[in-house]
Amino acid sequence: MKGVLIGGTSHCGKSTLAADIGTATGAAVGSTDQMARHPGRPWLGVPEPVAEFYETLSDETIYWFLRVHHTNMWPMLALEIERQRAGGQGFVLEGTALRPESLAGLAGDHLVTLCLCANADFLVDRIRRESDYEARDTRMRRLIDRFVTRSIRDNAEIIADARKHGVWLVDAGDMTALATARQDILSRLSP
């Protein structure tokens, strides 16, 4: 059966696009975040270990941990993709762990793969809005700023890797490009 894999950094609209495609097609929607969680968004009830992660590690180490986490997840994700394909139902799987280098070569008649990206201003605005940045105290803002730094770096790496590996890249900040991609995905999923 046909499926869709949507990668991209945090806050670039993967969940929104996946839900939209799922609603339009009746396909099951899943997220890699639900399969194995990495110290993610440092707001809304932040456990102390997550706060320490963002406060004490260097930006380079924070990003390294993210990449190692995604590399370690890939065997589990590959099995889930095969399970979904064998299940005979349409599916949409989204998540930052769906890296361009892993998606390369998977696209075909029964699988649509893409990565969403956005410019830094778009990501900063979305993260700050969702985290209620302006209402946060100084410590929480520092944690959010570290998350922003990680997300911007990840976005740049995803763009470079998608281009390197020939993975479809869609600018989530361009509403026309996003709408066109949505229509293209739906047409590819049509029988």
TrEMBL record:
Q: Which SUPFAM superfamilies match?
A: P-loop containing nucleoside triphosphate hydrolases
Looking up Gene3D superfamilies in the UniProt record yields:
P-loop containing nucleotide triphosphate hydrolases (3.40.50.300)
What protein is this chain from?
Uncharacterized protein
